[in-house]
Amino acid sequence: MVREILIWPDPILKKTAAPVASVDDKVRKLVEDMFETMYDAEGIGLAAPQIGVLQRVIVLDTRPRQPESRPIAMINPELLELHGKTTYEEGCLSIPGEAEEVERAAVVKVRYVDPDGNEQTLVADGLLAIAIQHETDHLNGTVFVDHLSTLKRELIRKRMKRLKAERAEVRPQA
Ligand code: GNR
Ligand code: NI
């Protein structure tokens, strides 16, 4: 099921998500909904808080720009190592139409539990490394505009306020 994606600023997007206690069918259904929602919105990643679920679950698929990649679901991801620096023009499905350069680590080592309940570790670079950091930020109540200057962030806040007002006019019941 495609779920609705929250638009920033939203109080849910500022909260810290809770660890998943056990990987059961309910979590697997959440992962399925998150992949459907991410592909529907043509994103390369999605974090559970973006659909209003405050649990530490993210999905990723950077194949549009890294063909050697594959869909990945991470439960309780933990960044173990960060190496180097890179900048990339980031966007966010919760901040539509905005894109700004953000500095991140170039390479990350991440430990997570997969939907079968098995612990995994992955070393990632390129866009996947950036997306992992962008998604783990969401689990900690942070979005990419929190890495920008106050001036840029407040301009984007105004544009999102206008976007929300326009959407409310077009879909009064939503
Ligand atoms: O779809 C997305 N594209 C993207 C581009 C550059 C850096 C990060 C991202 S993640 C974003 C999807 C999203 O909002 N995930 O939380
Ligand atoms: Ni995002």
Describe the largest sheet.
Answer: 5 strands, antiparallel
- The dominant shape is globular
CATH topology group = Peptide Deformylase
Strand percentage lies at: 15-25%
Descriptors:
24% strand, 7 strands, Peptide Deformylase, 174 residues, single chain, binds nickel (II) ion, 5-stranded antiparallel beta sheet, 3 helices, binds ligand GNR, globular
Structural description of this entry:
The protein is of the alpha+beta class. 29% of the residues lie in helices and 24% in strands. The chain contains three helices and seven strands; from the N terminus they run H-E-E-E-E-E-E-E-H-H. The strands form two sheets. The chain has a five-stranded antiparallel β-sheet, sandwiched between helices. Strand 6 and strand 7 form a beta hairpin. The longest helix has 21 residues. The mean pLDDT is 97. The structure holds ligand GNR and nickel (II) ion.
In terms of topology, how is this protein built?
Elements: H1 25-40, E1 45-47, E2 57-60, E3 72-83, E4 86-90, E5 100-104, E6 107-113, E7 119-124, H2 126-139, H3 150-170
Antiparallel strand pairs: 1-2, 2-3, 3-6, 4-5, 6-7
Ligand GNR is lined by residues 43-47, 50, 88, 90-94, 130-131, 134-135, 138.
